[in-house]
Amino acid sequence: MPKACRERTNFSRQFTNRSRLIGLRGSQGIIRRIRQHGFAIGILLVVGAFLSGCGDSNKPSTARASTQTVVPVGVATAERRDVPVYLKGLGSVTASNTVSVKSRVDGQLAQVNFKEGQNVNKGDLLAVIDPRPFQAALDQAQATLFRDQAQLKDAQLNYTRFKSLLDESGAVSQQQVDTQRATANQLEGTVRADQAQIENAKLNLTYCHITAPLSGRIGLRLVDVGNIVHAADPNPLLVITQVKPIAVIFTLPEDNLPAVAQHMRRSALAVEAYSRDDQTKLAAGTLLTIDNQIDQATGTGKLKALFDNQDGSLWPNQFVNVRLLLEVHKDATVIPSVAVQSGPQGSFVFVVKPDKTAEVRQVSVSFTQNNVASIASGISAGDSVVIDGQDKLKAGSTVSPHAGAGGGNRTAQSAPTGTP
Asked: 159 partner at 20 to 30 Å CA-CA among 60, 125, 193, 246?
C-alpha cells in the first residue's frame, strides 16, 4: 500500500477511536460534540471515500499483468522468383571519338557551313578557306608542266636524230648522242617534279574545303568568318564528338574482376547507366572490355561499356552510376533485407506462425540486393517474416501482423554478401 494511503488510514483510525470516546457520554454530550466536531466528521467521510479508492488501485494493474502483451508487427511474404545480380560502379561518359578540326593550309576563313550543336555526317562540308591563292598556284604548276613537257619532247626527238646519224653515217660522235640522251632524261625528271607540284597544289585546294572527318555532334564555333587561320594555330576551328555510339568508363573493385572476366567469356554482359541520383535509367548497352591493369591506389579496375545512345541521353564527361548485370539467380527465395537480423549464432529472421506467435529461425543469406535478400536455406516460399517491430519480439511472442512497407524491390545492387 502506498505511504500516503497508510497515513490516511492511520488518521481515520485515530478519528474513529476519538468518536467512540465521544459516544460513551450522554446523548446531550453527543449532540454537543457533533456540533463542535461537525467539520471533522465531514473530513472523515471524504477520507474514507479516498481510502476506498486507494485500496482498489492495484486491481487493474494486476489484471493487465495477467494478460499477455500482443505486439503489432509488419510482415512480408517470402516468394520465389528470378533475381538479377548487379555489380555497381561509378563511371564517366566518354565520346567514342573526339576530333579537333583545324585548317591544314594558311588563309582567310571565307565560309562556315555549320551551326553550333549540329549533328553532321562524315564528309559534310564544314568551312571554306579562300581558295583563290591555291587555285592560282595550281594553274602556275600546270603551266610549268606544259613548258617542261615541250622541252622534253624536243630533247627526245634530238636524241632520236643523233642516234640515227651515228648508226647510219657516223656524222655525229658518240659523245653527242650520250649528251642528248642525258638532256632528255633531265627534262623527264623535271616533268615528273612538275606533276608532283600539280598534285600538291590540288591537295592544298582540297584542304581549303574542310569536311567532317566523322559523324558526330559539333560543339561551339571557336573561329569566326573573316579571320586568318594557319595550320600551326594551337586552337581548332571546331570540335566534333562522336556520341552515337558513346562509351562509358567505370570502375569496379578488383575482387569482382575475375567473376566479370569469367562471365564475359560465356556471353556479352549487359550494362545500364543511371543518373547521378541513381534513380533514372538513362541507357542500356554492353560491356566492351576490361582494362589491362589495376589501379594500386584505389584497388579498382577500369571497364568500358558501349551504348548506342540513339536518343542522345548520354553526354561526354557526364557522371553516371553504372550497373553491370553479372548473372540471374533462377527461382530464388527472396525476402526483404530488413527482415534479416544478426545474432551470436548468425543471421536469423522472425517468422509468424499460423497461431500468431513469433518463431526465431536461423537463415543462410546467399546475397543481398539493396532491400532484397536471397535466402539459401531456412525460409520457404509463403512464410511470413517480420520486417518491422523486431526489437519488441522474442521467441513465442504473440503478434498482431499487418502488411509492412519495407518489402519493395529495386534492381540496383550495393554489394553481394555471398558468392554469386
From this structure: 193
Given this model, what pLDDT does residue 21 score? 46
Q: Which one is the CATH code of 90-94+242-329: 3.40.50.2000, 3.40.50.300, 2.40.30.170, 2.60.120.200? A: 2.40.30.170
Burial track 282-292 (b if 16+ CB lie within 10 A, e otherwise): bbebebbebee
The whole-number mean pLDDT for each consecutive block of 10 residues of the chain, a chain of 420 residues, reads 51 52 46 48 48 46 56 91 91 94 96 94 96 96 95 92 85 87 93 96 96 94 94 95 95 94 93 94 96 94 95 94 92 91 90 91 87 89 90 88 63 40
Per-domain residue ranges for the chain?
3-65, 73-82+330-403, 90-94+242-329, 98-218
Distance CA 402, CA 189 (A): 99
Task: Measure the CA–CA gap between 287 and 87, rounded to whole angstroms.
Answer: 12
What fold, for 73-82+330-403? Answer: 2.40.420
Rounded distance between C-alpha atoms, residue 388 and residue 72, angstroms: 9
